[in-house]
Amino acid sequence: MLKRYSALLFILLILWGCNPNNTKQPDADVYKVVKVKDGDTLGLLTSDNQQLTVRLAEIDCPEKSQAFGQAAKKFTSDLCFGKDVKLIGNVHDRYGRTVAQVILTDGTNVNYALVKNGYAWQYKAYSKSTELAALEQQARENKLGLWQDANPTPPWDFRREKKQSKPDSLQTPKPKKHYHKRKPKLEYAA
């Protein structure tokens, strides 16, 4: 009787091991967060070990050199570094980055969490979300994160001001050097 159960158990284990549904394959739609470049830009690793840069959609965090820029980066890092995420959206910006909402496996929307906790603005030029607008308003009223400042500067204004304050030598492209070309020798017919 024991031999019969042992044989049956052995056959079941072999069949279970051969079942393709029992082998865990990496999910092509799941990415690992391997870098936090700033509050709203992540470096992800695909299931086939390709790197992908993702810009968080519909929000804009303070620049790293701006007030609360480092705090936004730390918040993003604490929230998702080393974790698996899924993306909603697959458009690309002019820098080749994927622009998407980033969702943790527990369902947390990283983009919305940044706004809710006062580390990002809703980027109204690219977002019409009433939910994001409400989250930003709540963060403002509760003086969370960057809303502790009396008059925080939106990052799009900060970037524009920084660009305008560059010295002229950095704003205008340098003229191309013109090299003197050798004039061909003219041959005279005799």
Structural features:
single chain; 190 residues; alpha+beta; OB fold (Dihydrolipoamide Acetyltransferase, E2P); 5-stranded mixed β-barrel; 21% strand
In short:
With 190 residues, the protein is an alpha+beta fold. The protein contains six helices and seven strands, in the order H-E-E-E-E-H-E-E-H-E-H-H-H. The strands form two sheets. It has a five-stranded mixed β-barrel with strand order 1-2-3-6-5.
Radius of gyration (CA) equals 27 Å
CATH class of one domain: Mainly Beta
Principal-axes shape call: globular
The residue-averaged pLDDT reads 84
**CATH architectural category of one domain:** Beta Barrel
SSE topology string:
HEEEEHEEHEHHH
The stretches of 5 or more residues where confidence is low (pLDDT under 50) are: none
Helix content: 25-40%
Number of helices: 6
Instruction: Kindly estimate the percentage of residues that lie in beta strands according to DSSP.
Output: 15-25%
Question: Assembly type of the shown chains?
Answer: single chain
The name of the CATH topology of one domain is OB fold (Dihydrolipoamide Acetyltransferase, E2P)
Instruction: Walk across the major sheet and give the strand order.
Output: 1-2-3-6-5
- Strand tally is 7
Sheet having the most strands: 5 strands, mixed, barrel
Distance between the termini: 118 Å
